[in-house]
Amino acid sequence: MISYLEFEKPVAALEARIAELRETASTGDVDISSELRRLETKSADLLASTYAALTPWQKTQVARHPMRPHFRDFVAQGFSDFVPLGGDRCFGEDQAIIGGFARLGTNGDGPRVMLIGHEKGHDTQSRIKHNFGMGKPEGYRKAIRLMELASRFKLPVVTLVDTSGAFPGIEAEERGQAEAIARSTEACLALDVPMVAVIVGEGGSGGAVALASAERVLMFEHAVYSVISPEGCASILWRTSEKAADAAEAMKVTAQDLLALGVIDRIVKEPVGGAHRAPDRAIAALVKAIGEELDALGKHSPAKLKALREERFLRIGEA
Known about the structure:
Layout: H1 9-27, H2 33-52, H3 56-63, H4 71-78, E1 79-84, E2 97-104, E3 112-118, H5 124-129, H6 137-152, E4 157-163, H7 170-174, H8 177-190, E5 195-204, H9 205-209, E6 216-220, E7 224-226, H10 230-237, H11 244-251, H12 255-261, E8 266-268, H13 279-297, H14 302-315
Parallel strand pairs: 3-4, 4-5, 5-6, 5-7, 6-8
Antiparallel strand pairs: 1-2, 2-3
Helix pairs in contact: 1-2, 3-11, 4-13, 6-8, 10-11
């Protein structure tokens, strides 16, 4: 069952009415098929027009939707032969950042990749287990280890970014959170194999950049990417999180704004109504886009790949 966001209430009302009519049609003798078709068309049009005019704050809500596909869904529906690899060989395992060997696509004949990404969890128990996708130092050090392993075996790296930010707890600071994030960013930039990063939901702060410093950065249509959450920005500037919508507008967090600014390289379209309404189609579109990017990057030498990364980040903000 779809969980509706605040701005989707008119769509929710229509779809509830459609569900009632379907129930009536299945138990009664009155033909209401024409009325059903009319309401279904109206609902589809309303959903399309609503999502075509989302504000940055509404896109932030969509990016955080609890039913949006997470790392485990991408692995199950977009990759095959996934072999998870755990531990940072220093402190321990971090469940917020998961990675391992995989094949792109579900047919089993796609290119081998090193797949790394954030997992937020899908219910209360799994969200606690995965720390709501907020990585700790050992998670970023694990990512570094896996990137170095990918480089050794000449495997491209694919990262799926979906985090509100790195874990801000005192124990993370004690274990060197800032240093781990910086080292992970450095490891991305130093790779001599192709790297494609995708912002699939939230891309928050250094916790996102640490896995997204690639030569090609893709972004789902309704994902967001920013240096701080809109609520955090509003709390700093206006001393109230109630100004989050204004902060989201000013921060240019949407894929469309970031493409224009050169922060990302490509937008991956989502099904009408967001990836949470049709995860299978959203994941299929993403796998196709990643495959195209890897094919193009595979033609370049290690030196060229590093140069491409350097050039793309130096270009940001030129205009």
